[in-house]
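Table S2 (text version). Query chain:
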Amino acid sequence: MIPLEKIWDFLFYRREWSFAPIYDENGKFIKYKKTLKTISCLDAERGIDQRTQRIRQHSNEAILLWTLARNISGIIVEIGVAFGGTSLLLAAASPKSKVYGIDRKIRLQFDDVKLEMKNLNINNYTLIENDSTTLNIKDYIGNNIDFLFIDGNHSFEGCNNDIKHWWSYVRMNGLVAFHDFNTGHPGVIQNVHNLLSENKGKLYTQ
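Corresponding structure-token output:
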């Protein structure tokens, strides 16, 4: 398992060069001073900077996902890859697992993630560019998913379609997690409540 701190800076910080002009005592320009700055992608309101992030998670969410994944040796599926940071997190945390990312549209930042995976010798990850609600799961992945992380379409219908399509492929005592269970995404909240109501006494929640 790759230590979390080894990928933390990559996920939550970016580095860029800044150029500051230098003048002599008479105010005449001499040269530019080149400095490498480390800038946090975290912000107080959302927890992430949408422009520079490589992961669409708050730092606390990332730590929780890492903690869950590192105890799994099996099959992990992430629905909704976006920038790819969570894919890197899951694959690094659970090197004995096969980790799959499902998304129809991959963002440009994923190229950075692929390079980081190569640098860290992470080879347990497979990206499937496809519709998560129509993918032939049995052919691509199998029917014994240990950890399913749903972070795709956050509308009620979109989230519901992912649940219906994937639920039966999660093994007994498997783990399912949802991202953005908050008032900003009522469709996710309603689907989780429906799921708990329909499976009362069969699910352990945390």
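Notes on Table S2: The CA atoms of residues 133 and 162 lie 6 Å apart. Helices lie at 4-12, 59-69, 85-93, 110-119, 137-140, 156-166, 186-198.
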